[in-house]
Amino acid sequence: MRGPVLSAAGTLVVVEVGGVGMAVQVTPQHALSLRLGQEALLHTALIVRDDDLSLFGFATREELTVFDLLRGVTGVGPKSALGVLAALSPDEIARAIGAEDDAAFRKVSGIGPKTAKLITVSLAGKLVPVAPAAAGGATTAAPRGTADSVLAALVGLGWAEKNAAQAVDEVLAEVDDATRGSVPTVLRLALSRLGPQR
């Protein structure tokens, strides 16, 4: 789906396609990255139910693929799958599945212990991390990579690099090791720290 953004709030964006405003559910981070009036390209999935048609949109085809795989797991609906992608990147999801680490999924709202375990079992071998972490030094490399990614996103959203860098550094100094490696989580916390844009 491609078209100008008419509105973006929370997890819902409206994109104009052929003169019609299409409501699409996205992750909070994705909604924050979209600018009103600017053209957006979303990779979408249409979920059809007896009384409802819902569109879910993603910034990359990789996210859409992971979304579809997650929906194929018993007990994981489209909103839960979107929640997983809001908390973890596709690469982080692949790492967690490869390590059989269901704890990463239990942190997601709406995902219980049984469903978290089902995700790791059902998707085993179906997702491969883009850049597997080395056995040593992974925790020290992750925060810098996370910081660079979040900083780039904030600057792209219009924040001054100096202010954005300070917010990212403050967030990374306060969170635990697991959170430091999550770009979506650090981005959300940094945006919260920066406050409304003037």
Question: Can you put this structure into words, describing what you see?
Answer:
- By secondary structure, this protein is of the alpha+beta class.
- The chain has three domains: 57 residues, OB fold (Dihydrolipoamide Acetyltransferase, E2P); 63 residues, DNA polymerase, domain 1, CATH 1.10.150; 49 residues, Helicase, Ruva Protein, domain 3 (Orthogonal Bundle).
- Helices cover 50% and strands 19% of the residues.
- Strands 4-1-2-3-6-5 form a six-stranded mixed beta sheet.
- Helix 2 crosses helix 3 and helix 7 crosses helix 10.
- The longest helix has 19 residues.
- It is flat, with a radius of gyration of 17 Å.
- About 6% of the residues have low confidence.
- Its main location: cytoplasm.
- Keywords: ATP-binding, Cytoplasm, DNA damage, DNA recombination, DNA repair, DNA-binding, Helicase, Hydrolase, Nucleotide-binding.
- Belongs to the RuvA family.
- One of its GO terms (molecular function) is four-way junction DNA binding.
List keywords for this structure.
198 residues, alpha+beta, OB fold (Dihydrolipoamide Acetyltransferase, E2P), DNA polymerase, domain 1, Helicase, Ruva Protein, domain 3, 10 helices, 50% helix, flat, helicase, Holliday junction branch migration complex subunit RuvA, DNA recombination, RuvA_C_sf
